[in-house]
Q: What sequence folds into this?
């Protein structure tokens, strides 16, 4: 768990994705190959804005042991403004969430390996100010 | 004047306050205390509470990201990160490393976690200032952030809150010049926490006169002596805010008016954010300050010491996007009851 998490820390801490300059598609998690352009892919890293829209969601009541304190919590399918669709915890009250809700990325704790273990951090989402 | 640092100052700043609040009434009800007596005595009406997945590292990152975003600088130009806190998530493993990674600063930067009770954040500003002045770094990031706790039933439980502020220090695009700084330090055991203990201990009434007031007043007087400035030369003043009473009394002792301290007095509605306390108040002042305004900032850390700063706002502040401000963030809140609070603060242990 530890080495695998550590290698991807940069992409978990921040929404750094990749962009294919041939077709303009953005990817998160980052890819080093564009499945549309294949051999014509031209990939570079891109900082995503962190803003997105909820496509659908579920309220999780039956949680893994480590997340017992957090239940119930919201997991949402979010389309980032740059295109990629990701699944993420949405830190808000279950009664707040709705389809089409605007959200933004924040830096939060994912969990920890018990009291003696490492603490995992990464990106989650919160409701964004509605204009 | 001993020494004046020219052109070095605050380039940008950011703040973070968790959205949850608990009212003094809800804490008083659990412990059978009179809420009006508590509110009157302490001057704290409600306090911020971090969510289960928020800690000093997440608060530091959010405040720092706001500071960097507002400045529009390349994070690779940040040469130093100092995080001041007494609630670092790890006893051994610096919060500054987590902040550096989350900001994509790269690997070429000086970093350390600082600890001096509630004044470690202002100590970070002094370190950054000196390093910019010495030409060692282009920008330094100083953060004061805490998620401190009081033991259940301890008077501290009414005030110990969570929040943080981050300041980008440099000599390019300065929005508020730090004209002078000095510190007053002594060995005073007013408040402490031994290694491995979850809650702090304190000397009760001893925390007032020989600790808070002696250090805050001495540092402020030292600064005014060294600069030749008087209370009326400052548009605003902000002091460390362990409760709503101490900073008001310190201001009066030094000859500052209610009007000078009102904008920065955030403690009544967020509680004592420890390392974030005087810095959140300072940020609330920067939110509304105009070019030419002079601000007195005095922090206090138990143990004990105070850092004093004389800061003058420049024309460049008008080009910085300062929204949302500290008071906007204070008013955006969700109230929780004591049960939820106890769960959030892990006062309930899971087996
Ligand atoms: Zn492509």
A:
């Amino acid at each position: 768990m530890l080495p695998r998490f550590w290698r991807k820390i940069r992409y978990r801490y921040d929404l750094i994705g990749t962009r294919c300059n041939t077709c303009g598609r953005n990817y998160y998690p980052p890819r080093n190959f564009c499945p549309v352009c294949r051999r014509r892919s031209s990939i570079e890293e891109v900082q995503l804005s962190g803003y997105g829209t909820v496509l659908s969601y579920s309220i999780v009541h039956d949680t893994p042991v480590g997340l017992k304190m957090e239940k119930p919590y919201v997991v949402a399918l979010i389309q980032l403004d740059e295109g990629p669709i990701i699944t993420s915890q949405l830190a808000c009250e279950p009664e707040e969430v709705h389809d089409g809700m605007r959200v933004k990325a924040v830096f939060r704790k994912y969990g920890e390996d018990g009291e003696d273990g490492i603490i995992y951090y990464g990106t989650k989402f919160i409701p964004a100010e509605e204009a | 004047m001993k020494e004046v640092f020219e052109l070095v100052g605050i380039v940008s700043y950011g703040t973070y306050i968790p959205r949850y609040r608990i009212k003094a009434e809800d804490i008083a009800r659990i412990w059978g205390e009179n809420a009006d007596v508590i509110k009157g005595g302490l001057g704290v009406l409600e306090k911020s509470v971090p969510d289960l997945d928020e800690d000093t590292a997440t608060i530091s990152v959010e405040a720092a990201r706001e500071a960097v975003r507002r400045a529009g600088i390349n994070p690779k130009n940040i040469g130093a990160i100092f995080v001041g806190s007494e609630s670092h998530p790890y006893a051994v493993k610096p919060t500054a490393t987590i902040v550096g990674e989350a900001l994509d600063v790269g690997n070429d930067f000086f970093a350390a976690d600082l600890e001096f009770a509630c004044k470690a954040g202002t100590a970070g500003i002094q370190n950054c200032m000196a390093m910019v002045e010495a030409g060692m770094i282009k920008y330094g990031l100083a953060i004061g952030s805490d998620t401190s706790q009081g033991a259940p039933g301890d008077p501290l439980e009414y005030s110990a809150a969570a929040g943080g502020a981050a300041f980008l220090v440099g000599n390019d695009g300065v929005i508020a010049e730090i004209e002078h700084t000095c510190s007053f330090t002594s060995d005073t055991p007013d408040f402490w926490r031994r290694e491995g203990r979850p809650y702090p201990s304190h000397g009760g009434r001893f925390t007032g006169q020989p600790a808070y007031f002696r250090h805050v007043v001495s540092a402020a007087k030292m600064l005014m002596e060294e600069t030749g400035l008087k209370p009326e030369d400052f548009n605003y003043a902000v002091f460390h805010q362990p409760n709503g009473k101490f900073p008001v009394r310190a201001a009066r002792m030094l000859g500052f008016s209610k009007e000078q301290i009102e904008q920065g007095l955030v403690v009544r509605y967020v509680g004592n954010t420890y390392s974030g306390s005087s810095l959140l108040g300072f940020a609330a002042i920067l939110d509304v300050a105009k070019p030419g305004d002079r601000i007195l900032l005095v922090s206090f850390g138990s143990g004990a010491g105070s850092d004093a700063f004389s800061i003058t706002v420049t024309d460049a502040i008008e080009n910085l996007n300062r929204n949302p401000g500290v008071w906007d963030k204070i008013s955006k809140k969700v109230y929780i009851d004591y049960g939820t609070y106890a769960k959030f603060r892990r006062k309930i242990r899971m087996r």
